[in-house]
Q: What sequence folds into this?
């Protein structure tokens, strides 16, 4: 009896143990080491688990093979938003009524998941339609504060059925935002509705959100899968979850049904031929730039001065005459136009367009009229490549057998208003892209497998026995080679010519064929394979882009055009290219104007009455386009509100010093490095910005006293201003309590990791440096590396994490604090030990000294490493094949006891700052201070960040120091959270007179340790005196106390 | 030289006037010449002579570029020579560098020009372009940073690892053992500039009949031809080339910075130019930087005089 009881309880214990171990190693770790602090340890594991789930789920293609798509679901279920299941929902859903609310509307904030229950009676495939409304900063309780915050990014959710991803692509369901243009109220506009600058040029209107209710079918956000997703749902009860990714959204309803409304063009014609064709009226011309709505704030009216007859065009002034181009190239972006036809009947649509972007290829658009695709072929509209402008009716490129020419689509429209939306789509390229990306994923996999065996530089003369160790890789390479040859042929067929893009595929195929066919060729060609993987990635990136520029769109009765469309349009005055003489005249006028026009003043606008305004001069060293953005921001929201005119000058880097020297410097200088801020400050070239900088001294004359009093008053809100930034951001811009600049940009490092590789190797995301050391053997036995910063950058992170400082604290008894910075702290025990640890990372643990992080991260050679956080956008853009397979998080931390005796993991990162300074000699102190506050404020910085992004594409990540502005940029909820966590762990290095010497000697010491295996401690100690001597020398130059002054006390 | 005018009865003689009066008179008489000289002279004075004078003046102050300077007389010079180890190191580096690259690039230009001169004219034009290209293409020396990259995928490292000669990448441009030889090689590569072209031109203008005459007089081989005829005949070009080579070798700071960064590890390739830049740009001590500039100025004048002396001996 007792025995049975014992064995039962033992079994129970075992069961419990097993259950516990399922929760992950983290729980275990917490139990084992009580000393370890309880900092969200299961975090990294759960993050990886989520990705593992995603990785293990099928792709949509595999999913379709598993479930016969012919089985139509016959149910039609509409779930109202408000019918969500409150128990399973983790988001703070609000059902409060708003002015846009409809029946059943719920408001979902950015974070958290929402789950609905539903029942299906008939097993089959179903579409899922979501009716949503993009929330724009919503104040629910009317207290003037925003309760649901939104940013400009696309709304994104993950769609789960029964708590799991039915297939991988369901992780990325995008719901586009809706943007319109703000109507200028108090400014004069021309008859086209655009504001003019001083020279009569049209200025880009501001984009504002114009939300509306929209219904979308859940479909692939990359456009690789042209048709909307079909979800296979068995009879029974299920749950549907919309899980957090980014941006808040309002949901009215979710409809689960089978949508079979799509018909072919022939069916469409057959259905409409029965109806009367009374199409009549003149040609309706819609100017492209006068679009009604767009999906993105980066699609706005642009100007193209290449053709003489682009409407409107002038050699003298800039007219905003086109829309699109390289801003309208990503799948999911759309532009809509509204138009009216007089009577029912068939109408043709013919845009004048420029497709000189994708050489030798065509780009695709998907037209939706009044929100619906009229017929299936309308998803495959082709716009062929040509250097010149083209004008032709919409076509899908299929040859009409009757005429032997490409068929031109006609659309049956009823009398009245209509809306057409042109969506960026991939059309026939979708399948090719899907296949190439799949191939690339496989090739990457093979590359990694070989890399883990041979290392990055395999020995050509060694027999690795690939054939025995990894026969599947050899076979796989041959298979991929064959596939790529096929794809190349397919591509040729689609485009009609053999372009450079199909040759790229063939080159890769040839290499794979050789490597897979002869294992002796693997090692010598390994490097080349790596290059080709990069080439393939770039190929995918460029091929995915579908840029197209519209000048205008014509809508006319099909019957009026008759047989020859081009003829008809020409007769009515619409042509693709200008004739020789008008082109010549236009070019000549442009040439003459190039001597007269001042292009750099484009966009400069002096508002009425600004003559009485205070005027300040501002310098920036950024690019011309950036200056343009700043200029328009200034005229839009600064000059008017503050009554200050701003003269913004774009100057070459390094001109501030000579200008200041000769007394012709600016009032305010943007983006000044922290080292320069202090350099100027100690030489009294910039103004202190806080009242502490204006203390009256004995012997000051009247004028100085008055000036001090004035400045104390102007700068009295300094403390409030710096609360917009991380605490660390002001450190390097201050010297002994006096602030000399406002923070503008802020850079710091975070830990980037490849989830797929870590999972494959059974590793976790490292949370402490011990974790890093523990994962090194696994990484290195697979020939992989960990990336870190060398020299001072690497040292500072480690130093701060151990609670140590770079400079010695002020001496005890020194109340002024002026003795801080006299002495370097690198000779303390902790510092020396830290420096030794840093050097050993490179000498003992084999960290690579020099590398390109983005490249190695992409190939997987460096699956985890520390890098600047702004590299995020580069990876997003240049490594599309890695989507969802990587992330960034807090830096690995150091476990230590803090001041209060508590054990913490210190994740501190070192941060670098640039700032805005006010130069001494500025006469309009108040105006300049207003400008500085306005410029670093959340609203301006956020808008600038967005515009910057719009200008440079997603690779333009503006590293603003303003916290609110940074968080409002386009991050997923998870990424934003990681950033916020890192912001709690930032520390900056104070800039001290003579500080340049530290960087220099730390690097010297590090290099001797790295190159010559010198003892790090000895090397460092050897430089301490030199560093301190230079600090003293520099300090005595500025009358600051030096080490010698305190010799007796020490 | 002086012109007689109607107004002057008696011829004016030199000893009737003071030196300044005489100069003024002479200048007035030759005003056309001075007028024609003026554009160049004004520019030359403002942009060359004046800065030299200014930097000599600044070298006596503690000018920090943003505040009013104070005169501190010879403190800067005393500190430079007696209390600045890095300056002495930079003098050493500069001299080593100049001693190798100056004559090196000079001889290289000369020998290459001589060889190329022997080629048929079409090939000669092509070869001239190939050798001259590096010196006109701006920052082309930066290609060497790819070759000597510390990355294990860098050209040299990758090749050496592939050949099995090294196992871990070498930080070529950050390792004090390799920096000096590498920058000297690169400097030689880029140095075939103007002097090289002058030599080629110089070889072209040598009077052919002289060779015949020399052959009659007993010149036996090409070396003697070169030493006794060609080189003395093109002494002006050689002098020009030498001055260029020497000046260039002192001013290679930018190439070194472009390759190994600033400052070079442990100052192993720190030249006077770098020292000047360090104090002028990084530390904002213009007074001290001017002192360095003045020293460099005299060093260059000195070496130019030395070179003239040496070249005077060619063909003797």
A:
């Amino acid at each position: 009896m007792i025995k049975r009881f014992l064995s039962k309880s033992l079994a129970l214990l075992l069961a419990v143990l097993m259950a516990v171990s399922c929760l992950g190693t983290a729980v275990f770790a917490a139990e084992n080491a009580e000393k370890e602090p309880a900092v969200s340890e299961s975090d990294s594991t759960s993050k990886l688990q989520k990705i593992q789930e995603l990785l293990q789920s099928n792709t949509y293609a595999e999913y379709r093979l598993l479930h016969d798509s012919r089985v139509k679901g016959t149910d039609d279920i509409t779930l109202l938003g408000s019918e969500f299941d409150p128990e399973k929902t983790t988001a703070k859903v609000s059902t409060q009524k708003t002015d846009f609310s409809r029946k059943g509307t719920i408001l979902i904030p950015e974070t958290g998941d929402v789950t609905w229950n539903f029942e299906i009676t008939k097993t089959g495939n179903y579409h899922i339609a979501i009716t949503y409304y993009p929330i724009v900063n919503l104040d629910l309780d009317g207290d003037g504060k925003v309760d649901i915050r939104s940013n400009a990014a696309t709304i994104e959710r993950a769609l789960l059925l029964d708590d799991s991803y039915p297939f991988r692509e369901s992780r990325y369901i995008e719901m586009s935002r809706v943007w319109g243009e703000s109507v200028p109220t108090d400014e004069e506009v021309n008859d086209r509705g655009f504001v003019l600058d001083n020279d009569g040029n049209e200025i880009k209107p501001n984009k504002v959100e114009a939300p509306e209710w929209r219904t979308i079918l859940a479909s692939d956000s990359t456009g690789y899968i042209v048709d909307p997703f079909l979800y296979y749902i068995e009879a029974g009860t299920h749950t549907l979850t919309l899980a957090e990714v980014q941006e808040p959204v309002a949901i009215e309803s979710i409809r689960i049904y089978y949508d079979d409304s799509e018909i072919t063009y022939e069916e469409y014609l057959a259905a409409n031929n029965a109806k009367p064709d009374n199409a009549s009226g003149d040609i309706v011309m819609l100017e492209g730039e006068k679009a009604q709505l767009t999906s993105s704030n980066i699609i706005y009216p642009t100007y193209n001065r290449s053709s003489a007859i682009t409407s409107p065009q002038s050699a003298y002034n800039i007219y905003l005459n086109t829309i699109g181009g390289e801003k309208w190239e990503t799948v999911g972006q759309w532009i809509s136009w509204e138009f009216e036809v007089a009577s029912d009947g068939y109408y043709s649509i013919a845009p004048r367009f420029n497709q000189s972007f994708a050489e030798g290829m065509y780009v695709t658009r998907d037209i939706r009229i009044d929100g619906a695709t009229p017929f299936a072929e309308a998803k495959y509209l082709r716009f062929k490549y040509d250097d010149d402008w083209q004008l032709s009716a919409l076509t899908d490129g299929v040859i009409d057998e009757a005429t032997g020419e490409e068929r031109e689509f006609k659309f049956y429209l009823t009398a009245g208003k209509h809306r057409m939306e042109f969506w960026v789509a991939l059309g026939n390229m979708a399948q090719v892209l899907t296949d190439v990306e799949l191939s690339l994923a496989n090739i990457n996999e093979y590359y990694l497998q070989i890399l883990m065996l041979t290392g990055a530089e395999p020995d050509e003369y060694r027999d690795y026995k690939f054939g025995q160790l990894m026969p599947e890789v050899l076979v796989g390479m041959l298979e991929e080679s064959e596939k790529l040859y096929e794809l190349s042929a397919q591509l040729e067929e689609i485009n009609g010519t053999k372009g450079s893009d199909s040759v790229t595929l063939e080159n890769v195929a040839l290499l794979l064929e050789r490597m897979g066919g002869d294992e002796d060729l693997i090692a010598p060609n390994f490097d080349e394979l790596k290059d080709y993987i990069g080439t393939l990635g770039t190929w995918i990136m460029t091929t995915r882009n579908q840029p197209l520029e519209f000048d205008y769109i014509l809508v006319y009765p099909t019957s009026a055009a008759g047989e020859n469309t081009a003829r008809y349009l020409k007769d009515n005055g619409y042509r693709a290219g200008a004739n020789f003489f008008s082109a010549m005249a236009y070019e000549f006028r442009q040439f003459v104007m190039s001597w007269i026009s001042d292009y750099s003043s484009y966009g400069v606008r002096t508002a009425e009455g600004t003559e009485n305004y205070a005027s300040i001069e501002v310098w920036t060293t950024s690019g011309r386009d950036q200056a343009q953005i700043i200029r328009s921001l200034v005229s839009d929201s600064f000059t008017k509100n503050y009554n200050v005119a701003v003269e913004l000058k774009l100057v070459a880097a390094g001109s501030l010093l000579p200008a200041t020297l000769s007394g012709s410097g600016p009032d305010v200088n943007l983006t000044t490095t922290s080292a320069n801020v202090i350099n100027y400050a100690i030489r009294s070239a910039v103004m202190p910005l806080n009242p502490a900088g204006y203390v009256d001294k004995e012997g000051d004359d009247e004028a100085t006293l008055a000036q001090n009093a004035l400045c104390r008053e102007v700068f009295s809100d300094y403390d409030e201003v710096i609360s917009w930034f991380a605490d660390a951001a002001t450190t390097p811009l201050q010297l002994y309590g006096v602030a000399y600049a406002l923070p503008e940009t802020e850079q710091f490092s975070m830990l980037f990791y490849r989830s797929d590789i870590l999972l494959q190797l059974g590793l976790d995301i490292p949370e402490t440096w011990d974790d890093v050391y523990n994962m090194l053997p696994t990484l290195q036995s697979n020939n992989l590396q960990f990336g870190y910063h060398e020299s001072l950058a690497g040292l500072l992170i480690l130093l701060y994490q151990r609670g140590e400082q770079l400079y010695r604290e002020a001496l005890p008894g020194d109340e002024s604090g002026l003795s801080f910075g006299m002495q370097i702290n690198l000779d303390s025990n902790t510092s020396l030990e830290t420096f030794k640890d840093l050097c050993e990372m490179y000498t003992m643990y084999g960290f690579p000294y020099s590398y390109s992080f983005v490249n190695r991260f992409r190939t997987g050679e460096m699956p985890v490493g520390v890098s600047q956080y702004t590299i995020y956008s580069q990876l997003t853009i240049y490594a599309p094949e890695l989507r969802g397979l990587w992330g960034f998080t807090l830096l690995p931390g150091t476990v230590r006891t803090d001041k209060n005796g508590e054990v913490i993991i210190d994740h501190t990162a070192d941060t670098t700052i640039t700032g805005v300074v006010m130069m001494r000699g500025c006469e309009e102190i108040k105006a300049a201070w207003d400008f500085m506050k306005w410029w670093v404020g959340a609203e301006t910085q956020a808008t600038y960040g967005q515009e910057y992004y719009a200008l440079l594409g997603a690779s333009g990540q503006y590293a603003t120091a303003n916290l609110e502005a940074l968080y409002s940029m386009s991050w997923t909820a998870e990424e934003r959270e990681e950033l916020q966590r890192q912001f709690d762990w930032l520390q900056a290095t104070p800039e001290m007179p003579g500080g340049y010497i530290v960087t220099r000697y730390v690097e010297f010491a590090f290099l001797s340790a790295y190159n010559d295996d010198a003892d790090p401690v000895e090397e460092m100690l050897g430089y301490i005196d030199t560093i301190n001597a230079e600090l003293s020398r520099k300090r005595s130059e500025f009358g600051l106390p030096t080490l010698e002054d305190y010799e007796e006390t020490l | 030289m002086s012109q007689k005018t109607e107004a002057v009865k008696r011829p004016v003689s030199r000893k009737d006037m003071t030196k300044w009066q005489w100069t003024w008179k002479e200048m007035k008489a030759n005003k056309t010449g001075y007028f024609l000289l003026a554009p160049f002279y004004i520019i030359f004075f403002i942009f060359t002579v004046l800065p030299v004078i200014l930097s000599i003046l600044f070298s006596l102050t503690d000018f920090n570029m943003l505040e009013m300077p104070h005169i501190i007389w010879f403190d800067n010079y005393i500190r430079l020579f007696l209390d600045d180890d890095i300056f002495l190191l930079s003098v050493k580096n500069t001299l080593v560098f100049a001693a190798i690259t100056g004559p090196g690039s000079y001889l290289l230009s000369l020998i290459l020009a001589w060889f190329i001169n022997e080629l048929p004219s079409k090939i000669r034009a092509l070869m001239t372009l190939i050798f001259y290209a590096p010196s006109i293409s701006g920052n082309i020396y930066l290609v060497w940073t790819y070759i000597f990259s510390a990355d294990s995928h860098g050209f040299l490292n990758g090749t050496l690892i592939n050949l099995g000669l090294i196992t871990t990448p070498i930080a070529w441009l950050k390792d004090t053992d390799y920096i000096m030889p590498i920058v000297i090689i690169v400097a030689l590569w880029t140095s075939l500039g103007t002097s090289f072209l002058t030599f080629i031109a110089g070889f072209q203008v040598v009077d052919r009949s002289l060779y015949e005459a020399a052959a009659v007089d007993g010149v036996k081989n090409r070396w003697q031809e070169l030493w006794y005829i060609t080189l003395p005949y093109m002494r002006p070009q050689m002098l020009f080339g030498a001055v260029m080579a020497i000046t260039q070798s002192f001013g290679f700071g930018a190439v070194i910075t472009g390759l190994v960064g600033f400052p070079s590890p442990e100052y192993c390739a720190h030249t006077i130019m770098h020292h000047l830049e360090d104090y002028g740009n990084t530390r904002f001590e213009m007074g001290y930087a001017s002192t360095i500039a003045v020293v460099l100025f005299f060093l260059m004048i000195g070496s130019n005089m030395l070179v003239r002396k040496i070249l005077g001996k060619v063909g003797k």
